[in-house]
Write a structure and sequence with these properties.
The chain is α+β, with helices and mostly antiparallel strands and 169 residues long. It has one domain: Alpha-D-Glucose-1,6-Bisphosphate, Chain A, domain 4, CATH 3.30.530. It is 19% helix and 41% strand. A 7-stranded antiparallel sheet has the order 1-7-6-5-4-3-2. The protein is globular. The termini are far apart. InterPro entries: DUF1990 (IPR018960), UCP010260 (IPR014457).
Length: 169
């Protein structure tokens, strides 16, 4: 099994800790009423956030993305300035609580960033909220173009946050 590229405990992105040298990103958006929660939870675990954002998630099993599960490895292919960038990952944690569902993945060698990212859906009172969390820093040689990397991260953060809004009926 390949080693993660980050130097903190897997699952740290799900806590409030920010390891030294990493940038924390936390964004949330209301995606519907509390009734939306079960459907949104399934969509997150089935990689709909990535698909609807123009990101392909590829797995050894073929085109059909398996449900997120701890230890699952894959590659997300992100269109960056017209060039497909491959970003290997491994799922570090799956969250399945009554009012919080989602998963986190960590970066593997070849990923343009070093760190973890989490995609969570929460039922908070009368609302369903989509939450995106990340602990990251650019990987070398991508660190040489860090401003471009931050711009791309911001662009895909916005796409991710809108991905479940489009699905609401």
């Amino acid at each position: 099994m390949r080693r993660f590229t980050f130097d903190f405990l897997p699952g740290t992105v799900l806590t409030d800790a920010t390891p030294r040298g990493y940038r924390r990103l936390e964004r949330r958006t209301v995606i519907g009423t509390a009734e939306r929660f079960p459907t949104a939870a399934e969509e997150v675990l089935d990689w709909a956030v990535q698909r609807r954002s123009g990101v392909r998630a590829l797995f050894d099993s073929g085109d059909d993305a398996p449900r997120a599960s701890e230890g699952l490895e894959g590659v997300v292919v992100v269109p960056a300035l017209g060039v497909p960038v491959r970003a290997p990952f491994r799922v570090t944690a799956v969250v399945q609580e009554p009012d919080r569902v989602g998963f986190a993945y960590g970066t593997l060698p070849g990923h343009p960033e070093v760190g973890e990212e989490a995609f969570l859906v929460r039922r908070i009172g009368p609302e369903t909220v989509f939450e995106l969390r990340a602990l990251s820093r650019p990987a070398f040689p991508y660190s040489l173009a860090a401003p471009v990397g931050l711009l791309l991260q911001q662009r895909f953060t916005e796409r991710y946050l809108r991905s479940l809004l489009r699905a609401e009926g």
